[in-house]
Amino acid sequence: MIPDLKMKLSVIIPCHNEQNNVGFLIQALTKTLNETEYNFELIFVDDGSSDDTVNEIKFNAGIYPNVFYIELSKNFGKDNALKAGISMATGSAVITMDADMQHPPGMIIKMLQFWEEGYDIVYTYRENANPHAKLYQKVTSRLFYKGINMLSDIKLEDGTSDFRLMDERVIKDLKLIDEHELFLRGIIKWAGFKQAGIPYTPSKRHTGEVSYSFAKLVKLAIGSIMAFSARPLYIMTGVGLTVSLMTIFYIPYVLISFAEGYAVNGWASIIATIAFFGGLQLMVLSIIGVYVGKIFMQSKARPNYLIRSTNLVNVNNDLIRV
C-alpha cells in the first residue's frame, strides 16, 4: 500500500484513571505520527474514571484540533471502551493502544510498514514476561493464555495485547459484531484476514497502577474461554462418562461381598463418594449455568456502553468532528 496524504489514521485510547498520562501520551503520539505521511486523529475513551481523566482529555482536546474524546456514563470495561472508539473511527486504519505508555508509540511506524505491505491486521505480543509486572500478574497472564489456547477454538500468542493496527475493511466488519461480553483479542484473531504479529517488550508505566484485580482477571478468563468455545461442556461430558464407567468396576466388589457374607461397610468412603459426585454435578451445572447466563444477557440486547458526552457528533450516520 502506497501512503496517501489524504489517508488518515485513527488512534483509539481507552482510559481509566489515567489523568497524569494523557498529556504525555498525546505528545509522544504526535511526535511519532508527525514522522509519517498520514493525517491522524486521537480518540480518547474515558471508561468511567474516578479521577480527573476526562477533564484532562477535554483540556487537551481544546488545544489539539485532532484530539477527540468519548466520555462513557460509567465503567463498562476496556473492550467496550475500545468498541465505542472503533464505532466512531473514520481512519483508513485504526490503531488501538493503552494510555499508560506500556505500548511504545514508536512501534506504530513498524505496524504501518506491515500495513503498507498489504496486511489487514498487525497485532503485538510480549516477547518476554512483562519485566514491570508483579509476580501474580505474570503467573495469571501465562495461565490465561495457556487456558484459552487449550479450551477455546482460537490460538493466541502468549502476551497478545490490545496494541494493534486494523485496516478499515476489518473495522467495517467489527462494527457489525454485537456481543454482550466482548473479547476483542479473540474476536480479531477469529476474524481471519491477513494478519502479522510483532513481538515487543512493554515499557514501564508512566504513572499509576494497573487497575485489573485478580478477581477481574479470573472473570475475564472464564468469559473469554466460554465466548469462543463449547469445549468446557464437552470436557465435562467426557469426565461424567469416565466416572460413570469407573463405577462399573465397583459392581463386582459389591456382588462378591454379598456372596461371601460380609457387609459392604465404610461410612467415610460412602460420604466421600457422595461428596465427590455432588461436587462434580455442581461443577457441570455451574458451567451450563454460565452459558445459559450469557444467552440470557445477550437476549436482553442492551448496548455495550452509553455515552455521557463527546466532541464527536453523529448526524445521519456521518461523523462530524467539532
Automatic annotation (TrEMBL):
Domain of life assignment: Bacteria
Domain Glycosyltransferase 2-like: 10-174
Cited Pfam families: Glycos_transf_2 (PF00535)
MF annotations from Gene Ontology: transferase activity
Entry's transmembrane regions: 233-255, 267-292
GO cellular component, one term: plasma membrane
Organism: Mucilaginibacter ginsenosidivorax
Lineage, highest ranks first: Bacteria, Pseudomonadati, Bacteroidota, Sphingobacteriia, Sphingobacteriales
Protein's name according to its UniProt entry: Glycosyltransferase
CDD domains cross-referenced by the UniProt entry: DPM1_like_bac
Keywords linked to the UniProt accession: Membrane, Transferase, Transmembrane, Transmembrane helix
PANTHER family in the record: GLYCOSYLTRANSFERASE CSBB-RELATED (PTHR48090:SF8), UNDECAPRENYL-PHOSPHATE 4-DEOXY-4-FORMAMIDO-L-ARABINOSE TRANSFERASE-RELATED (PTHR48090)
